[in-house]
Design goal:
This protein is α+β, with helices and mostly antiparallel strands and 369 residues long. Helices cover 20% and strands 18% of the residues. It starts with 13 loop residues before the first helix and ends with a helix.
């Protein structure tokens, strides 16, 4: 598969601190402070909009979100970790990241994230699926007039209201008038952008839609400070924390469920920074691998082979701005695939996935082991 389908310190004087802590016999405490203390990030939340995108240092949700907690050095592993990894790899090659696909049908399988501002028009949300009570039905939400859903069949659209702190996650958007009115979509949910990133309803696992999404700004910065969203071909028909629902089971495709990853499974790349640095590959790919090693990847939806959740470039093109993913691709001389008129960030090659991937036990993400 070439493209993805369905499926965000404060600087201190370290040497002074180190001297003080060594004197107190507390060097380990310094290490923990460095790990859990987030950087000062500007421009800050509240100022984002059409012309100001969140910088690479920004991430949604609290430091206690399972998506934002780094993995321990030696995490407890899930039972049958090796077998689950083997099943994942049997689904096929890791899907590539693409640039130049904004709004272009199934090539645009990303998830756009917009930020509302005080002057944005109000929309009344309307869900069309009859699956029970839709948490968003009838709510009035400010949405940028130019905002568009991703071009793929999932037609995701996420809006973060910076005044209220609510994140609204829409799936299957079918109608959005230009200047307010009724915004029609199939299903969705909402969560607090300063919360844990769980409890929404626009992806199979029930995560917030912005959870784990890879953004161009953070890839450009060289550091990704959160776990990544992982889509897989099919799941085991079960879910584990932090998921609360399943996607498409392998048995529904005529395949065995045995050793297929459950929705919510957390994969980790068991490589050190030194090992990653020694690989012969572009710097952008090493940035992604470090995130896989430090934070891991949560299974959140089904379809395709297996691959990462990427932000759709319609967040730029809908406002008439240059596509940031294309800008990065050209800067880094990423190969251009003429038949599809897109740039291909090869995510699969150069890593021994069978050797280095492992599955972390759910209790690690829950903080209970």
């Amino acid at each position: 598969m070439r493209g993805a389908s369905r499926w965000a310190r404060r600087r201190v004087n370290g040497w002074v601190l180190l001297s003080l802590l060594v004197a107190a016999g507390a060097v380990f405490a310094l290490v923990r402070v460095v790990v859990i203390t987030g950087p000062s990030c500007t421009p800050s939340f509240g100022s984002y909009g059409a012309k100001v995108r969140p910088p690479g240092c920004w991430r949604p949700y609290s430091d206690q979100s399972p998506f934002n907690r780094p993995l321990p050095l030696h995490p407890v592993l899930s039972t049958h970790s090796s077998a689950i990894v083997a099943r994942l790899i049997s689904f096929g090659r890791a899907q590539n990241l693409l640039a130049g696909t904004a709004g272009r049908g199934e090539l645009d399988g990303g998830r756009p994230i917009y930020f509302s501002s005080p002057g944005d028009a109000p929309y009344t949300l309307h869900c069309t699926e009859h699956w029970g009570r839709c948490a968003l039905e009838g709510l009035r939400v400010a949405v940028p007039a130019a905002a568009q859903p991703a071009g793929g069949s999932d037609a995701h659209l996420t809006v973060i209201d910076q005044r209220s702190g609510w994140e609204y996650d829409l799936w299957g958007v079918s109608s959005k008038p230009a200047r307010g009115g009724k915004l029609v979509f199939r299903w969705g949910g909402r969560t607090r952008v300063n919360g844990d990133g769980l409890g929404s309803a626009a992806v199979a696992a029930g995560y917030a839609t912005a959870a784990g999404v890879l953004r161009a700004e953070e890839l450009s910065s060289g550091e990704i400070r959160h776990a990544l969203f992982l889509g897989v071909k099919c799941d085991s028909g079960h879910f584990v924390y932090p998921a609360r629902a399943v996607g498409e089971s392998c048995s529904s495709l005529g395949l065995p469920n045995r050793n297929a990853p459950a929705m919510g499974r957390r994969f980790q790349l068991a490589m050190s920074d030194a090992q990653i640095a020694a690989l012969s590959m572009p710097a952008w790919k090493k940035t992604i691998l470090r995130a896989m090693a430090h934070y891991g990847m949560f299974v959140g939806d089904t379809g395709g082979s297996w691959g990462l959740g990427q932000e759709s470039s319609v967040v730029y093109t809908s406002f008439g701005q240059p596509d940031a993913w294309v800008t990065l691709a050209r800067r880094w001389q990423v190969p251009y695939y003429a038949p599809d008129r897109d740039y291909v960030f090869d995510l699969n090659d150069g890593v021994d996935w069978a050797r280095y991937l492992r599955v972390v036990a759910p209790c690690v993400s829950q903080g209970t082991c």
